[in-house]
Specification:
Blueprint lengths: L8 E5 L4 H12 L3 E6 L2 H11 L4 E5 L8 H7 L17
Parallel strand pairs: 1-2, 2-3
């Protein structure tokens, strides 16, 4: 594949499996790097290991609540294709 993304970083939610995994794979195969944001630690870590540390990193993330937003800010991705559902933070 062509290097469309040239090393850009994409934060992909739900990237340990399903649609999110497909999106993350497409970024990696197109020259990008991904942050795999997923609640499934086993699958997320295995996915990151499969692509290698220079292409993928895993961070356990529960996107059912928008409270995980600081994770997005710390990772500073330029590309953010949401592929897992997000809702508002629970009332405190």
């Amino acid at each position: 594949m062509t290097e469309v993304f040239g090393g850009e970083v994409a934060l992909v939610t739900g990237a340990a499996s399903g649609i999110g995994h497909g999106i993350a794979r497409a970024f990696v195969e197109s020259g990008g790097r991904v942050v795999i944001a997923d609640i499934d630690e086993r699958k997320g870590a295995a996915t990151a290991a499969m692509w290698g540390e220079d292409k993928a990193r895993f961070i356990r993330t529960d996107v059912r609540h928008a409270c995980w937003y600081p994770v997005k800010a710390q990772s500073a991705p330029k590309i953010y294709p949401p592929s897992a559902g997000e809702t508002a933070c629970p009332a405190t």
